[in-house]
Specification:
The chain is of the alpha/beta class. It has 2 domains: 205 residues, Rossmann fold (3-Layer(aba) Sandwich); 57 residues. The chain is built from 10 helices and 10 strands. A 5-stranded parallel β-sheet has the order 5-6-9-4-10, sandwiched between helices. The longest helix is centred in the C-terminal third of the chain and has 17 residues. The radius of gyration is 20 Å and the shape is globular.
Length: 296
């Protein structure tokens, strides 16, 4: 059993240059298979982020999923937990995001991660190499890359990343059960990853599993996930949705401060004119193009 190493962090703590040096908590997530330290620095104490007053205020003010009440409830619960002195960091209950293609399932996970100050990565169960790693299949001298949650931790120095899971409902039962082991708090603290030579504690990961056919999710996985049926926003809620997409596009394009005043109005008007049946990814691509071309 891997034990937590929760300790204060200060501005002197070694962190990535992009990370905020705020007072928070840290956690030792990996325990090596041998006396050798785990690869990629995963054996050091990693930050547990999102629990500062600034982070929680941003989540309260900037993250508005009012047209998705079930999702808003999950986020509200995460904020309440982060305000507890026992767990001052952000992690959500694992969810199954249901809805048609283009409804915005990846967007809501990325938007939550961005506002909370957490890294986001994707675990694609349709990827053959991912499936081989989950099933413990090796290929001779080929370098084995850690799975998304472990790689996200190592790359960001963060113990509580946000992970979007694709292709769960088309995966075999055995692969879905392996995913369930990564998510279930009873087993997630000892996920064996041979690529780093360690067992890794995944209990603080926020899981956003995508799907359209919940009946194809096996029972051991389904019972761990809170089902959320995403819907397309309409009316004034769609305008707010567009504003969130703009904020995401500005961040992804490293465009600095978000547009304001007339620039924001022109961008909102431009995107709001796109037919409401177009996908969230279409809106996002349009926003990125406008931001990239300096049209705001």
């Amino acid at each position: 059993m891997i034990s937590y190493d929760i300790k204060p962090m200060t501005a002197n703590t070694s962190m990535s240059i992009k990370d905020e040096a705020v007072v928070g908590a840290a956690m030792t997530v990996a325990q090596g298979f041998s006396s050798r330290p785990p690869a990629l620095g995963i054996g050091t104490a990693l930050a547990l982020r999102g629990g500062s007053q600034q982070d929680l205020t941003r989540l309260d003010l900037e993250l508005d999923f009012s047209w998705q009440p079930a999702l808003a409830s999950v986020i509200a619960e995460a904020i309440d937990r982060a305000r507890s002195p026992q767990a001052p960091w952000i992690t959500t209950a694992p969810v199954l995001l249901l809805g048609e293609n283009g409804v915005g399932r990846t967007h809501v996970a990325r938007r939550f991660a961005h506002v909370a100050g957490l890294p986001h990565s994707t675990l694609d169960l349709q990827d053959v190499e991912v499936l081989e790693r989950l099933q413990g299949i090796g290929r001779g001298p080929d370098v084995r890359i850690p799975l998304a949650p472990v790689l996200a931790m190592a790359a960001s120095g963060c113990a509580n990343p946000v992970i979007t899971v694709l292709g769960a409902e088309t995966a075999t039962d055995s692969v879905q059960i392996e995913l369930a082991r990564m998510i279930d708090p009873a087993t997630a603290d000892r996920f064996a990853d041979n690529s780093v030579g360690a067992t890794v504690d995944l209990r603080q990961v926020s899981w956003f599993v995508q799907g359209q056919q919940p009946e194809r999710i096996v029972a051991p996985l389904s019972r761990l996930l809170r089902r959320i049926e995403l819907i397309r926003p309409s009316g004034s809620e769609r305008l707010l949705h567009v504003a969130e997409i703009i904020a995401e596009a500005v961040a992804d394009e490293n465009a600095g401060a978000s547009p304001t005043g007339q620039s924001l109005k022109r961008l909102l008007d431009s995107l709001h004119r796109i037919p409401s049946d177009r996908s969230t990814s279409h809106l996002y691509d349009a926003a990125r193009s406008i931001v990239r071309n300096g049209s705001v």
